[in-house]
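Fold it.
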Amino acid sequence: MANQFSFDIVSEVDYQEVDNAINQALKEIIQRYDFKGSNSEITLNKKDHIINVASDNDFKLKSVIDILQNKMIKRGISIKAMKYGNVEPASGGSVRQEIKLQQGIEKEDAKNIVKMIKDKKLKVQATIQDEQVRVSGKDKDDLQEVMKMLKDSELEFAFQFTNYRYSLFVIRYSLFVIRYSLFVIRYSLFVIRCSLFVIRYSLFVIRCSLFVFNFLIL
């Protein structure tokens, strides 16, 4: 098999960071004067990848979502990963809204990515694998060009690059460098041992010379 570089294009969110963003948003809501006495809440359903937001009215609901978005951005989560449902009435005259967190690239979006890459006419292959796209090629510069193109394309959904794989040549070269480094270390240790031996021998010669010198003087 020819040597290949590859990477995966995925769309994922870190739920630990989502939790952190929600907790920080709730903390700010509690501390803000304009939310005093408000029944605003943000809850996360990890199983269904949904954030439920509720508040007293449309205006406060929008404010809650603005706060959440800011916290998400600060935690490194793209707001493009948040897909908003309709605002719905809730109990007591309040309102609520579901926010779907994107987990995986949708089929049509994956097809669009593959088409964009093919249109670039680089020597790479793009294949859809479940809810991600794998890009592979012999030249890592081509793969980096694909990454740059996608970053500059302003796609409407959040995506990340993961699992960058090096070619067999790079792996073999890295192993060669490691082995050579180990050889250099062993050789250096040998030289150090030889040097210590020479120092000890020199000290022995000096002691013998001093002994002979003292003997002759006496």
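Strands lie at 5-10, 41-45, 50-55, 82-84, 88-89, 95-101, 124-129, 132-137, 160-165.
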